[in-house]
Amino acid sequence: MKIKGVPYQVVNWNKIEAVPHRGASGEALWRSFEMGNIRARVVEYGAGYLADHWCPRGHVLFVLEGSVISELEDGSREELTQGMGYVAEDDENNRHRSFSPNGVKLFIVD
Known about the structure:
- The chain has strands spanning about 20, 25-35, 40-45, 50, 60-70, 75-80, 85-90, 95-100, 105-110.
- By secondary structure, the chain is mainly β.
- Strands 1, 2, 3, 4, 5, 6, 7, 8 and 9 form a 9-stranded antiparallel β-sheet that branches.
């Protein structure tokens, strides 16, 4: 990942308004910072959240609290708990989505 157009700065996630995003089920709250060629987010999925799409976008994801199930379109699944995460490249052949039965708080860079 090469970050461009983003000078050094402090981000106070507590001062960024949480924006709701509906899933196929449940809701996610995003606190997003976008500049240059990156987007960084603190995302909270409510209990029962299921993404409404298969995502081909690359991410670096880290679980801050709770757990999330990351599913690939081929049916493979991994449960990620606090302190775990994944790295995925932009890839139409490995599209993924998230499900959180009990809720989760994530840090995501893409």
